[in-house]
């Protein structure tokens, strides 16, 4: 097998395409031939030694992937050789083969493409957990999605619409706003050209959004929070912009609003049964055509450094997927 090996987390340039022995699955594990692996922002942070999870060196980056089971270890009964699966393993995805815990692998129903599956778990699980579980979103409410053209943003738009909400999508260019409208947003704000607070006031009749989904952080967060509706819920999803915002505590007081943390990974560990039920619902929605990953482009796995450069340019709309 071959893999992009990180021997020192000093950046993308330190990754090397390396031949390694093909591993044998241990009890409870499966060996999977990878067909597609998606690029996520944490993958970049991990090879730069900037992520909260720091795997022991050397490691193969690539948190999320899909492929075909080649062999199963002892005790694995729910998966078999030849079966297609998707997995969010944290590492190991930027390779031709990977060994992963069988319990972490999601069997793919008929018709679920490997490319879509590789771009599915992290974004849709995060957005479903945020909107359904943490925000308790109700039909008829208004949701503002910041960074709406990215992976989690596009998933949030689709999930909010599937739940009967009105969606205002905010993004950083007209092209990104056009994409958001195409996948179901009711209104858009190009915050590179428009004042976010004024646009929200106009689009919400002065009431503001009931739920704000924020995977971006940075300078937009306070402006967005100042626009939130009475009893609104502000979802802290991530900080793709870099800076972690600091909000004055009088703002949630004045609006009777809640600041709600979203950490899907910890939810999945602590509440596995609830997480499994959520993934079943998401797979059902995919089969019904209610949700579908937005794929910016596919690139050969051999072009991983170029894929990282494209992601770092912040021009990706939806997800970028590497294929073998």
From TrEMBL:
Matching Gene3D superfamilies: Medium-chain alcohol dehydrogenases, catalytic domain, NAD(P)-binding Rossmann-like Domain
Alphabetical list of SUPFAM superfamilies matching this protein: GroES-like, NAD(P)-binding Rossmann-fold domains
GO terms assigned for molecular function: oxidoreductase activity; zinc ion binding
Domain Enoyl reductase (ER): from-to ranges: 11-322
Coiled coil: none
Source organism superkingdom: Bacteria
SMART domains per UniProt: PKS_ER
Name this protein carries in UniProt: NADPH:quinone oxidoreductase
Lineage, opening ranks: Bacteria, Pseudomonadati, Pseudomonadota, Betaproteobacteria, Burkholderiales
